[in-house]
């Protein structure tokens, strides 16, 4: 039985126990290069293609600067799976993988998606409670001022109705945000055509269509994956539907938002403010206008997933289990298969064909 070739395209120290495990089981590991994380986009494609050429499986974390293109996926005729340690698969050409019958899996650990939900709450509260502005004001030797007055978020017994929060995407992150908001007594709207009605009841949210959510919400928070359908989900037309006092939050993926349209919406007072953790280009170029919007935006370096006590270790475990199942000729847990449309072709090519006992 030929030893499976595993191309670890983006190795990290936290995943080292899984590398030792795969070697002990008889896999041969081809280790990627650390500088791929930082080099200019596509600069290392030829090197990656050469290293992928003999691989039966690919294993690693996010590597946006050196994407896993169709050319990389086609380099090996025996490639079965691309198993990621993280949730997002932006840098993988998932459509090409599906056409080739290659599975793409992710690792939706609570340590990751739960952190994103908490980070979303932190950004929202910092904006409404003027946390940054108050801190800067007092450090400048000043005290109170009208522009430091915050916004009360939840409903009160005196008749104040509180804010309306609209969640776009009611998956793991969106559902946790809804759960965290419940004690705040906000009016909660949600839009997600891919979840059953029971999910809205479970989350305490009213199911509305996208335009209604945009028109009625004081906060619009995106929690969607990046697909052809969601690319530029938010553009000038959508921002124009929102209240001029509304806050827009994006802690999902940068390319679901037309960033120029967002910048113009803030500059022209179409909306009040935005909290952004994901950008169309990461990091945003130094000359980007989004860096010059002052306190009207709260910017985060695509890092809400990162928390002490979390890390990539749990995700590496999920990715390794998926990879080992695939090279044993079995489907991984379907909950982590991103491109389920690839399953029939994958079964035709690899089903029951084990490379490990």
Model description:
The protein is elongated. It contains 13 helices and 12 strands. With 357 residues, the protein is α/β, with parallel strands linked by helices. Helices cover 33% and strands 13% of the residues. It has a 7-stranded parallel beta sheet with strand order 8-7-6-9-10-11-12, sandwiched between helices. Strands 2-1-3-4-5 form a 5-stranded parallel beta sheet, sandwiched between helices.
Name of the CATH homologous superfamily of the largest domain: NAD(P)-binding Rossmann-like Domain
Radius of gyration: 22 Å
Strand order of the largest sheet: 8-7-6-9-10-11-12
Helix run count = 13
- CATH C-level class of the largest domain is Alpha Beta
The outline comes out as elongated
Biggest sheet descriptor: 7 strands, parallel
CATH architecture type of the largest domain: 3-Layer(aba) Sandwich
DSSP strand content: 5-15%
- Structural class given helices, strands, pairing? alpha/beta
User: Kindly state the mean pLDDT as a whole number?
Assistant: 93
What distance separates the N and C termini? 9 Å
CATH level 3 topology of the largest domain: Rossmann fold
Give the number of domains. Answer: 2
Unreliable segments of 5+ consecutive residues? none
Characteristic key phrases:
Rossmann fold; 13 helices; alpha/beta; 357 residues; five-stranded parallel sheet; 12 strands
Blueprint of the fold:
Blueprint: E1 5-10, H1 16-24, E2 28-31, H2 45-52, E3 57-60, H3 70-74, E4 81-84, H4 94-100, E5 103-105, H5 110-128, H6 131-139, E6 164-168, H7 172-181, E7 187-191, H8 197-203, E8 206-207, H9 210-216, E9 219-222, H10 236-241, E10 247-250, H11 259-267, E11 273-276, E12 297-299, H12 313-327, H13 343-350
Parallel strand pairs: 1-2, 1-3, 3-4, 4-5, 6-7, 6-9, 7-8, 9-10, 10-11, 11-12
Helix pairs in contact: 5-7
């Amino acid at each position: 039985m030929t030893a499976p070739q595993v191309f670890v395209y983006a190795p990290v120290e936290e995943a080292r126990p899984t590398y030792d495990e795969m070697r002990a089981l008889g896999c041969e590991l081809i280790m990627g290069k650390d500088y791929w994380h930082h080099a200019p986009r596509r600069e290392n494609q030829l090197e990656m293609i050469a290293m992928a050429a003999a691989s039966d499986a690919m294993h690693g974390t996010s590597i946006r600067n050196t994407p896993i293109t169709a050319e990389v996926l086609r380099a090996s005729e025996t490639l079965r799976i691309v198993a990621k340690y993280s949730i997002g698969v932006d840098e993988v050409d998932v459509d090409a993988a599906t056409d080739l019958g290659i599975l793409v899996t992710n690792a939706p650990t609570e340590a990751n998606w739960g952190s994103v939900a908490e980070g979303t709450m932190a950004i929202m509260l910092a904006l409404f409670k003027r946390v940054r502005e108050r801190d800067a004001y007092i450090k400048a030797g000043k005290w109170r001022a009208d522009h430091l007055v915050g916004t009360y978020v939840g409903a009160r017994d005196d008749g104040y109705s509180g804010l309306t929060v609209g969640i776009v995407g009611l998956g793991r992150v969106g559902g946790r945000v809804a759960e965290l908001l419940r004690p705040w007594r906000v009016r909660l709207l949600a839009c997600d055509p891919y979840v059953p009605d029971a999910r809205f009841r479970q989350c305490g949210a009213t199911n509305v269509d996208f335009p209604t959510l945009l028109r009625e919400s004081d906060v619009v928070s995106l929690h969607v994956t990046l697909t052809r359908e969601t690319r530029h989900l938010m553009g000038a037309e959508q921002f124009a539907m929102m209240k001029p006092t509304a806050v827009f939050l994006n802690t999902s993926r940068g390319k679901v938002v037309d960033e120029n349209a967002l910048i113009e919406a803030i500059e022209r007072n179409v909306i009040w403010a935005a909290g952004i953790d994901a950008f169309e280009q990461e990091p945003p170029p130094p000359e980007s206008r989004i860096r010059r919007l002052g306190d009207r935006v709260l910017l985060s370096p695509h890092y809400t997933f990162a928390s002490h006590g979390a890390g990539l270790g749990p995700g590496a475990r999920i990715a390794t289990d998926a990879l080992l199942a695939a090279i044993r000729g079995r489907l991984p847990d379907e909950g982590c298969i991103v491109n389920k449309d690839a399953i029939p072709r994958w079964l035709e090519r690899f089903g029951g064909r084990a490379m490990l006992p």
